[in-house]
Q: What sequence folds into this?
């Protein structure tokens, strides 16, 4: 048995009299029409520009699209982005070679700086108008981003947004490598790969804050002159791809105390062989897996198999250490946000003291992110690559119109009638041209016989 419920009937609509005396019931307002009017009254959602990865692969998968502006959740702050940092990790994400990537499409980027526009519930250490830098897990390359407050850091007075993205990721990684993991002390020596990149330059600068430290830097030969001219902190520049281990042995026969490797693959074995007893080898990247524009399973497999398997007994016998650093995992998987915040505070303190001076290679508009990525992929940057949402994109070169075969279009062929008319006109011109060439006067317009008769009559009158 189910309980019955009383329902009150709605009052019948009033009938209105018409001209012929009959009454008419007005039609009820359709519910669909009411909802349409409400939709018209509500404003459309605000949009922003963002760098979106539409699919894993080459540069064509990276597009600038309009996306809805993010909303602020509890514990988050909304940042108006002024600068974004480009890191090699972003290239690995684009190819899909990173672990546990999100499903496409999604907004790229792990580093940005700007001004707080909104503060979510529960956030007490930030307010609207604060200048900050953030390390979100994706979504940084946009005009607006909402980030949990634990991954946001207040900028010291005088630091610009551009300086912030050139300092934060690169120098925090360098700081953790040198002082938290390698235990850098006076008199030690170290070798760093990709010495011309953002982290490589940060390592060289921070290493020189310690007395009597010798820095060996490996990078492309084309960067050597530029690095030497730019207040270089590297004592010995070595050419990438050469037998640099022998060059190190010539200068330091016992090897080095610290090896910092962001390449992986074959360099792991070389680095291990260069270490002194009590030496430390630290891997903080795997850029050797990025060889082409798209993901290569062969490159990843080769980088893995080229690495010798070192047993703990060998480390014990040789008094050597192996370690690794992955900042993204430290923040988002291992829950060490407070540990990273202390490192950021120490780096910002060194910046205030003038011991940290970031080197910016170039600044790009969001629309030119593909060119910036290509420059980093080709290892042509010296220092940090920065994206600026306020910049206008580079003008695209104009290309001439081309046909199907890629050649310039030829004029259209004449029709048969046009060609026939043209030939007739040329034939009419020929007699006139021939007469002029022979010294003859051109014929008059049909009045030549009458004129000759009048001239003969005039001659006869004169003779009589």
A:
């Amino acid at each position: 048995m189910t309980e019955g419920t009383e329902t009150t009937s709605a009052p019948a609509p009033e009938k209105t009299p018409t001209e012929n005396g009959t009454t008419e019931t007005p039609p009820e307002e359709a519910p669909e029409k009411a909802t349409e009017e409400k939709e018209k009254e509500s404003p459309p959602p605000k949009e922003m520009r963002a760098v979106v990865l539409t699919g894993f692969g080459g540069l064509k998968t990276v597009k600038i699209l309009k996306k809805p502006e993010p909303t602020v959740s509890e514990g988050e702050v909304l940042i108006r982005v002024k600068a974004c940092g480009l890191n090699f990790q972003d290239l690995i994400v684009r190819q899909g070679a990173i672990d546990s990537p999100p499903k496409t499409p999604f907004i790229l980027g792990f580093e940005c700086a700007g001004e707080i526009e909104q503060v979510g519930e529960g956030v007490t250490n930030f307010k609207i108008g604060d200048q900050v830098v953030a390390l979100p897990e994706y979504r940084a390359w946009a005009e607006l981003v909402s980030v949990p407050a634990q991954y946001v850091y207040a900028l010291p007075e005088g630091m610009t947004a551009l300086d912030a993205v050139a300092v934060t990721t690169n120098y925090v990684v360098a700081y953790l490598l040198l002082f938290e993991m390698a235990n850098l002390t006076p008199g030690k020596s170290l070798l760093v790969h990709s010495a011309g990149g953002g982290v490589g330059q940060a390592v060289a600068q921070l290493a020189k804050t310690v007395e009597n430290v010798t820095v060996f830097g490996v990078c492309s030969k084309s960067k050597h002159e530029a690095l030497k001219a730019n207040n270089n902190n590297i004592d010995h520049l070595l050419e990438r791809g050469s037998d640099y281990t022998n060059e190190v042995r010539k200068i330091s026969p016992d090897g080095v105390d610290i090896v910092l490797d962001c390449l992986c693959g074959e360099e792991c074995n070389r680095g291990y062989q260069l270490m002194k007893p009590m030496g430390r080898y630290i891997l903080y990247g795997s850029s050797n897996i990025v060889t082409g524009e798209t993901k290569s399973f062969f490159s990843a497999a080769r980088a893995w198999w080229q690495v010798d398997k070192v047993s703990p007994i060998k480390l014990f016998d040789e008094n050597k250490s192996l370690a690794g650093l992955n900042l993204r995992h430290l923040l988002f998987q291992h829950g060490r946000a407070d540990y990273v915040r202390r490192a950021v505070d120490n780096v910002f303190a060194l910046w205030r003291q003038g011991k940290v001076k970031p080197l910016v290679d170039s600044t790009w508009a969001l629309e030119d992110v593909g060119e910036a990525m290509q420059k980093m992929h080709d290892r042509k940057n010296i220092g940090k690559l920065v994206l600026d949402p306020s910049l206008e994109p580079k003008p695209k070169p104009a290309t001439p119109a081309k046909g199907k075969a890629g050649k310039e279009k030829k004029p259209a062929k004449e029709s048969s009638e046009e060609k026939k008319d043209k030939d007739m006109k040329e034939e009419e011109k020929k007699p006139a041209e021939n007469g002029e060439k022979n010294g003859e006067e051109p014929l008059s317009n049909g009045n030549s016989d009458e004129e000759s008769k009048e001239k003969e009559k005039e001659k006869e009158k004169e003779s009589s």
Remarks:
- The longest helix spans residues 416-437.
